[in-house]
Write a structure and sequence with these properties.
With 140 residues, the chain is mainly alpha-helical. It has one domain (2-126): Orthogonal Bundle (yst0336 like fold). It is 54% helix and 7% strand. It has six helices and two strands, in the order ααααββαα. It has a two-stranded antiparallel ribbon. It is globular and about 55 Å long. The termini are far apart.
């Protein structure tokens, strides 16, 4: 049960982060450049804005993901810990929009989403909400 609480807290912190900082400036690990390069080399055609769970969990997908993930053993701390990932990056974490993945899969996909502009929708929505609240004298 503790791992589930940690995974949820990680998801909550990350979503708050991309809601308050322009995602293109975020650095998730010390090796983001390496993770991103290897991810796009291995999964160049993977659609990351709205993920298909089969691309992560089917047997053929697992066979492709396993070598990608293992190259980060000893490079990324806790690379194989379980983490929550949003399927549709324009939406928040909900039961329907969340899948359980390894931490390195999370870093790979979220780094790509940040660099390729897919997480901008979350940040823009949060900034619009803040602006609207400021204009009406409320707080976001």
């Amino acid at each position: 049960m503790i791992w589930a609480m940690k995974a949820y807290q990680h998801a909550e912190v990350y979503f708050n982060l991309i809601s308050s900082v322009d995602p293109k400036f975020l650095k998730l690990t010390k090796v983001d450049d390496q993770i991103y390069a290897e991810f796009r080399k291995s999964f160049g055609d993977l659609k990351i804005d709205v993920l298909d769970p089969e691309e992560l969990k089917s047997e053929p997908a697992k066979a492709k993901w396993r070598p990608f993930c293992m190259q980060f053993d000893g490079v990324v701390e806790d690379f194989n810990y379980g983490t929550l990932l949003r399927l549709d990056c324009s939406k928040d974490y909900t039961e329907e929009n969340t899948i359980f993945v390894t931490r390195i899969q999370f870093f790979a996909i979220e780094t790509a989403r940040n660099r390729e502009g897919y997480n901008n929708a979350v940040y823009s929505r949060a900034m619009d909400t803040q602006s609207a609240a400021a204009e009406t004298g409320g707080s976001a």
